[in-house]
Automatic annotation (TrEMBL):
Residue span(s) of domain Response regulatory: 621-735
Residues forming coiled coils: none
GO molecular function, one term: phosphorelay sensor kinase activity
Gene3D superfamilies named in the record: 1.10.287.130, 3.40.50.2300, Histidine kinase-like ATPase, C-terminal domain, Tetratricopeptide repeat domain
Residues making up the signal peptide according to the UniProt record: 1-21
Reaction catalysed by this enzyme: ATP + protein L-histidine = ADP + protein N-phospho-L-histidine
Pfam families reported for this sequence: HATPase_c, HisKA, Response_reg, TPR_8
UniProt EC number: 2.7.13.3
Protein name: histidine kinase
Entry-annotated residues carrying 4-aspartylphosphate: 670
Domain Histidine kinase: 373-594
Length: 745
C-alpha cells in the first residue's frame, strides 16, 4: 500500500511539473512572438497558394496570440493581411473594416512602414470598388509614409497602381507621368517585376495617346524582362498587349504570333483560373469554414457517443442546440445585414477622415517649410535695403534726399517687423513656442515697459498711469518675455489709437491657490474705440477695424492674434470691452507662481560697454564669408567705418582653406552658400581651431536653428538684417578680451 501511494505521488508530481513547464514555455514572450510570426508567414504562403481558408485560420490564431500579449504592431499587421485576404475573395466592405483597424493601431504606435502598406491596400480596395478618387487619396497617403521611411520598392509599386487609376479616369498624360516615376525607381534599384509591369502599362498608355510605335517598343522591352526572370503572369499580359498593338497597325501576322503565345501560356494556367475564379474564391472559403465547423461538431458527437450512459441524451441535446443555433443564426444574419451596411458607411467615412487628417498634417508641414524659406529669402534683400539706407543717411545726404531715405528705412523696418510677426504666428499655430519660467520682479518689468514706450506716448500727447495693487507681492516665477510681449503689444495698440488722452495699466489679484496667484491685467485707454462687430473678430490674424483705420494708423493686424496665442500658451484668458469714440479696455488673466527668490541676473553682456579707443584695431583681421555681392559690399562698408580690415570669400570650402593659412580675429559666416553650408564649414574649422570667434551672420529663423548653430560651434549669432549699433558692439565686445589676453601675455 505504501509503495502504491509512492507511485501515485510520483505520477501526480510529474504531471504537475510537466504542466508548470508547459505554462512557462507558453508564457515566454520570445516563444509567443515566434509563434505569431510563424503563423503570419504561414498565412502569407497559404494566400499565395490560393488556400484562403487555411490563411484565414492562421491569421485568426496569430491575432488571438498577439492580442493576448498586447503586441500592437503584430495586431496591426494581421488586420492588414485580413484586409488583403478579404479583398482577394471580393469582400471589399469587410476589407475596409479590417484595414481601418490596422490603420488606427499603426497610427497610434507610429508604425509608418506598415501604415504605408495599409494605406496602399486601402487604395487597392477602393480601386476594386471603382471609387477611383478615394483610391488616389489612399495612394497619396501611402506614398507619404513610404517616402518618410525610404521604402523605394513599396513606393514604386504604389506609383504603378496610381498610374492604373489615372488610366481608368482617362487622364492618360498623368497616368504616363506617374508610371514613368515608378519605372525610374524600379530601374534604379533593379526591381525587375515592377519594371516589366510598368513597361506593359506604358505600352497601353502610349497606345491611347496615339504613339503606337513607342507602345510596341515598351511592350517588347517589358516582355523581354518578364521572360528573363520568369514572371509568368506578366509574360502572359505582355503577349496579349503586343498582339493587340500589332493588330491595331494591321500587322496581322505578328499579331497572330503573339496571340498564339498568349493562348499557350493561358492554357497552362487555365486550370488554376477555373478553380480559383473570383466567384469560386468566396464560395470555397465559406464552404471550407462550414466544413470545419461541421467536422468539429461531428468530432464532439463521436466522443460523446463513447459514453454509453450519456450518448443518447447528448445526441438529442446536440440536435436541439443545433436547431436553436440555426434559428438564432438566421435572426442574427438578418440583423447583421442591416448593421453591416451602416458599419460599412461609417468605416468608409472614418477612412476618409483619417486620410484627410494626413493631408492636413502634410499641408501644415508644407506651410511651415514654405514660411521658413520665404522669410529667409525676404530677409536677405532686406539686409541690403536697411544696410544701404543706414549708410546713405550717415554719408551726409542732400537735405531733399533725407525724407526719402528715412521713408526707405522705415519701410524696411516695417517689413522686417511684419516678417517677425508672421513667424511668431506660425510658431504659435505649430505649438513650437516653449515656456521658459524664471524669477522676475513684475512691477519692475511693467515700469520698464512703460518707460520704453513713453516716447511714443508723448508723441501722441498721452499720459500713462500704472496702478499696482497695494500689498501685492512683486516677485513671481513665469515666462517674463512672453508677458512683456503681451503688454508691449496691448500698450502699443492703445498708444496707436489714442490722441491727447490717457492710458491706465492696472494689475491686481483675483484668486490664489497655495503659491499660484491669478492676476488680472487691465490696459485702458480713451481712444477711438472698437465697434461691437469688429470685437468679434479682433483676435484673428490680419484682422483690423477697417481699411480706413489701416490706412490712417498702419499695422499688419497680427498683434492681437499674437497676444491671444501667447495668453493661451500661458494658460490664461483675454477679453475686451470697448465703445466707439469712448475708449477700449483689454483684460487678460494669467496664473503666476509666487517666489521669495529675487529677480534672476541678466545673461551674458552682448554689447560692448568699454571705450573703443582702448582697442588697437590696426592689426585686427576679419574674414567675411558671404556669397551675395550686395551683402559683401554693405558688410565691408560697415567694417571700414569701424576702422576694421576684412577679407571676403564667397564659399565655405575656400573659407576653410583661408583660415588654415591666415590668422583671423573674427569670422562672419553666412549660412546658405553654394557648395558646403556655413554650418558645415564651421564644423570643419572647429576640427583644427577651437578658440576662433565665429559669428553666424544669417537670415534664417534663429529659434528653429539655435541647437544646430550651437552644435556646429558658432560663438554667437547676428541675425540679418541687423541693427548697425548692435553689430558694432558685438564685434568690439568680442575683440576686447582677445586684445586684453594678448597684452597680458
Amino acid at each position: 500500500m505504501t509503495k502504491l501511494k509512492t507511485y501515485l505521488f510520483f505520477i501526480v508530481w510529474l504531471i504537475m511539473a510537466t504542466t508548470s513547464a508547459q505554462v512557462k514555455i507558453e508564457q515566454d514572450p520570445e516563444i509567443v512572438q515566434n509563434n505569431i510570426n510563424y503563423r503570419i508567414v504561414q498565412s502569407q504562403t497559404e494566400l499565395e497558394s490560393y488556400h484562403y481558408y487555411n490563411a484565414q485560420k492562421n491569421l485568426d490564431e496569430a491575432l488571438e496570440l498577439a492580442e493576448k500579449v498586447g503586441n500592437k504592431k503584430s495586431v496591426g499587421v494581421i488586420y492588414a493581411l485580413k484586409g488583403r485576404l478579404q479583398l482577394i475573395i471580393q469582400q471589399e466592405d469587410k476589407a475596409l473594416k479590417s484595414l481601418n483597424k490596422a490603420i488606427e493601431i499603426q497610427r497610434i504606435i507610429n508604425d509608418n512602414k506598415n501604415l504605408g502598406a495599409s494605406y496602399k491596400l486601402y487604395g487597392d480596395v477602393y480601386f476594386a470598388k471603382q471609387d477611383y478618387y478615394a483610391a488616389l487619396d489612399s495612394y497619396t497617403a501611402a506614398k507619404s509614409k513610404f517616402e518618410e521611411e525610404n521604402l523605394n520598392e513599396e513606393l514604386a509599386e504604389t506609383l504603378l497602381h496610381e498610374g492604373k487609376v489615372y488610366f481608368q479616369l482617362k487622364n492618360y498624360q498623368k497616368s504616363r507621368d506617374v508610371t514613368e516615376q515608378a519605372l525610374a525607381i524600379a530601374i534604379n534599384y533593379d526591381y525587375f517585376k515592377i519594371q516589366s509591369e510598368a513597361l506593359n502599362n506604358h505600352a497601353i498608355i502610349y497606345s491611347k495617346l496615339g504613339n503606337t510605335e513607342k507602345a510596341i517598343v515598351s511592350g517588347l522591352e517589358g516582355l523581354s524582362i518578364a521572360n528573363k526572370h520568369k514572371f509568368t503572369n506578366v509574360t502572359n499580359d505582355s503577349y496579349l498587349i503586343i498582339s493587340d498593338l500589332y493588330n491595331n497597325i494591321g500587322n496581322y501576322k505578328l499579331s497572330r504570333k503573339y496571340l498564339k503565345d498568349h493562348l499557350k501560356i493561358s492554357d497552362s494556367i487555365r486550370g488554376l483560373n477555373r478553380i480559383y475564379s473570383p466567384n469560386n474564391q468566396e464560395t470555397q472559403y465559406l464552404l471550407n469554414e462550414e466544413i470545419e465547423k461541421n467536422n468539429a461538431i461531428v468530432e464532439k458527437l463521436e466522443k460523446a457517443e463513447e459514453d454509453k450512459n450519456l450518448g443518447t441524451l447528448i445526441s438529442i441535446l446536440s440536435v436541439a442546440l443545433i436547431t436553436i443555433l440555426s434559428l438564432l443564426t438566421l435572426s442574427l444574419y438578418k440583423n447583421n445585414n442591416i448593421r453591416l451596411k451602416t458599419n460599412t458607411m461609417l468605416h468608409k467615412k472614418n477612412g476618409e477622415l483619417i486620410i484627410a487628417k494626413e493631408k492636413a498634417e502634410l499641408a501644415s508641414k508644407t506651410k511651415a517649410n514654405f514660411l521658413s524659406t520665404v522669410t529667409h529669402e525676404l530677409r536677405t534683400p532686406l539686409y541690403a535695403v536697411t544696410g544701404l539706407s543706414n549708410m546713405l543717411l550717415e554719408e551726409d545726404p542732400k537735405p531733399e534726399q533725407i525724407p526719402h531715405l528715412k521713408s526707405l528705412k522705415f519701410s524696411g523696418d516695417y517689413l522686417l517687423t511684419f516678417i517677425n510677426d508672421i513667424l511668431q504666428i506660425n510658431k504659435i499655430e505649430a505649438n513650437k513656442v516653449d515656456i521658459e519660467p524664471e524669477p522676475f520682479n513684475l512691477k519692475k518689468k511693467i515700469t520698464n515697459i512703460i518707460l520704453a514706450l513713453n516716447n511714443s506716448a508723448e508723441d501722441n500727447d498721452i499720459k500713462m498711469h500704472i496702478e499696482y495693487e497695494p500689498g501685492l507681492t512683486e516677485n513671481f516665477i513665469a515666462d517674463q518675455l512672453k508677458i512683456s510681449q503681451i503688454l508691449i503689444n496691448l500698450i502699443g495698440n492703445s498708444i496707436k489709437f489714442t490722441k491727447k488722452g490717457d492710458i491706465w495699466i492696472r494689475v491686481y489679484q483675483i484668486d490664489q491657490k497655495d503659491k499660484i496667484y491669478t492676476l488680472r491685467f487691465e490696459i485702458e485707454d480713451n481712444g477711438i474705440g472698437i465697434s461691437q462687430e469688429k470685437q468679434d473678430h479682433m483676435f484673428e490674424s490680419f484682422s483690423q477695424g477697417s481699411i480706413q483705420i489701416n490706412r490712417k494708423y498702419g499695422g499688419t493686424g497680427l498683434g492681437l492674434s499674437i497676444v491671444k496665442g501667447l495668453v493661451d500658451i500661458l494658460k490664461g484668458k483675454i477679453y475686451v470691452k470697448s465703445e466707439l469714440n469712448k475708449g477700449t479696455t483689454f483684460f487678460f488673466e494669467i496664473p503666476l507662481e509666487y517666489t521669495t527668490v529675487e529677480e534672476a541676473l541678466e545673461g551674458k553682456m552682448n554689447y560692448f560697454d568699454g571705450d573703443k579707443s582702448d582697442l588697437d584695431l590696426s592689426k585686427v583681421k576679419i574674414l567675411v564669408v558671404e556669397d551675395n555681392k550686395i551683402n559683401q559690399m554693405i558688410t565691408k562698408k560697415i567694417l571700414s567705418k569701424m576702422e576694421l580690415n576684412c577679407d571676403i570669400i564667397d564659399n565655405g570650402e575656400d573659407a576653410v582653406q583661408m583660415i588654415k593659412n591666415n590668422d583671423y580675429n573674427i569670422i562672419l559666416m553666412d549660412i546658405h552658400m553654394p557648395g558646403i553650408s556655413g554650418i558645415e564649414a564651421t564644423k570643419q574649422i572647429r576640427a583644427f581651431n577651437k578658440e576662433l570667434t565665429i559669428f553666424a551672420l544669417t537670415a534664417v529663423t534663429i529659434e528653429d536653428k539655435m541647437q544646430e548653430f550651437e552644435d556646429a560651434g558658432f560663438t554667437d549669432i547676428i541675425p540679418k538684417p541687423f541693427k548697425q549699433d548692435e553689430f558694432e558692439k558685438k564685434l568690439y565686445n568680442a575683440l576686447a578680451p582677445k586684445q586684453k589676453s594678448s597684452t597680458n601675455a
